[in-house]
Give the backbone structure.
Amino acid sequence: MNNNACDLQHFLKVPWCAETLTAPNVKFLHDIENPLRSVMNKGAFANGILAIPDGVRAQLAYFHQKPQESRPIGFPFPELCVMYDVGPGVAGWAGRGHGGFLSYLFDTVAGWLALLNTHHAGKVQGTPQMGQPTTMTARLEVNYRKPMILGGVFIVTAAINRLEGKKIPAIRERSVASEDMYCKKFPMGPIPRSNSNHLAI
């Protein structure tokens, strides 16, 4: 499963997704020089999750060219959104998403956001290190509000709040077409492992 134009066409068939994705300030990750291309969905764990039959049917990463006013200035990518179409293959109870799967998605999107920023910083310094681990999860906290209903599309958004030394505290939120929130916002701190102008090491 890769983020690409085929997945864009998949989501454009869903009216509320099309409305979201055709907004004038939306930019798709696959349309830019995407440093994540070589690392997205890599590794034995990710491969296993994505190989689950009728699990993640499509995914599409995008960002807003003009981030929301609450986002901090100083990061080339202050936020990242990933739209997912998820089937019954990742159920805990029938028709309900497994909590561990949802945590995995939060962790993944947050990691991609951190990688985008650390890679950009390394590129500015002339030392991009996308082939090596440059971020790791320091803390992940999820507050579930109600079960995740499978068989539909939802969006995971990761946004950087501020910089605290090696940590990038971020907020994640999950939304669906009905705008119900299945989880509260929660903080997580990816730890950069490379030199960066944006991240104090």
Observations:
- The chain has a mean pLDDT of 71.
- Residues 99-125 form the longest helix (27 residues).
